[in-house]
Write a structure and sequence with these properties.
Length: 332
């Protein structure tokens, strides 16, 4: 029983209540934390794995990203995990995007971003881990790597790595949830002759879990198709998003398109922004200048996106420490 691992998070089961993987009974399949998350959607603490996993030589690494997290996709030093590894980028969660999305544009835009960061890769695959047809295509794709034994799933938390693991292995044992840092240690399952290794998520300490508890932020992270909402703004108009973010249009009349998970968005006078923002955070501001007429994307942590065309000057007010970025839009 000593080396038995939790089926949900991969942590080694232990009787020590101060350690990750704690369970009262070592014969159980899930630790207490995973049991409560699985059955009650309840989590009281966050534990980020400290150990950087190693990847066997000559392996295939599937770098998995949600379509909402593409702004950071090529910034991670994947090669530090192992030597002579083959990298395939999986752009997952297409089901979050509107059905009219131009996927050819998305594919070419991701390729452009990879070139910008001089990233080498075998392929870029667009898919949804919840669609059986896409999983079948991925299985057939993997089978073309006849000399590869180990396949590793690597990516930022909540990108769908474990969903892909379960789908490839035809299993539902590994726990799937929007909880950050859920996978604590490598979970390995079999598909054909492959060992499929689900690695702990690449940790982002400036995502929404860094300022909220699980029971608060799980309602904000998109898990189903996002309905884009268009707002026509004039100079000095403001949008307050869920009472914790504000977009202030300093200059450049025009439309703004929001992609969030049914969050409350209010169009208000900028002079009254502080009245509407939650008092529970320390706020900071960042100004973005959109210098030409192409479409831009503002990524707000891991909860959503804003699309808008330049030229414009905008100011984003947000809780200090959260990740906010601006890039050319990844989809249209």
């Amino acid at each position: 029983m000593r080396n038995k691992k939790c089926l949900g998070c991969g942590a080694e089961l232990t009787n020590n209540p101060n350690e990750v993987g704690y369970t009262k009974d070592l014969s159980m399949d899930y630790c207490v934390a995973c049991f409560r998350l699985k059955h009650y959607k309840d989590s009281k603490e966050h534990n980020h794995p400290k150990v950087i996993p190693t990847i066997n030589k000559d392996s295939l690494v599937l770098v998995i990203s949600s379509v909402l997290y593409l702004d950071l996709l090529f910034t991670y030093p994947i090669k530090r995990y192992g030597e002579n590894i083959k990298i395939v980028y999986i752009i997952n969660q297409l089901d979050l995007l509107p059905p009219q999305t131009n996927y050819n544009y998305l594919y070419e835009r991701v390729k452009k971003e990879a070139n910008l960061y001089h990233q080498e890769y075998e392929d870029i695959i667009l898919m949804s881990a919840t669609h059986k047809e896409d999983i079948e295509k991925l299985k057939n794709y993997l089978l073309t790597y006849k000399n590869v034994k180990d396949v590793y799933l690597l990516g930022v938390q909540n990108s769908g790595k474990t969903t892909i693991l379960n789908a490839l292995a035809d299993s539902e044992e590994a726990l799937v949830d929007v909880k950050a840092g859920l996978t604590q240690d490598t979970i390995t399952k079999q598909f054909k002759h492959f060992n499929i290794h689900d690695l702990p998520g690449l940790y982002q300490n400036n995502y929404i879990h860094s300022i909220m508890t699980y029971n608060e932020y799980r309602k904000l992270i998109p898990t189903k198709e996002i309905k884009p909402i268009i707002y026509n703004l004039k100079d000095n108009d403001s949008l307050v998003i869920n009472d914790i973010f504000c977009l202030y249009l300093i200059k450049g009349n025009g439309s703004v398109v929001s992609y969030f998970n049914n969050l409350e968005i209010k169009k208000i006078n900028y002079q009254r922004v502080l009245v509407h923002l939650s008092k529970g955070y320390e706020y900071t501001k960042q100004i973005f200048k959109l210098e030409n007429d192409k479409k831009y994307q503002i990524t707000i942590a891991d909860i959503g996106l804003i699309h808008l065309n330049g030229p414009k000057t905008i100011e984003i007010t947000f809780p200090k420490g959260l990740h906010i970025s601006m890039k050319e839009a990844f989809f249209i």
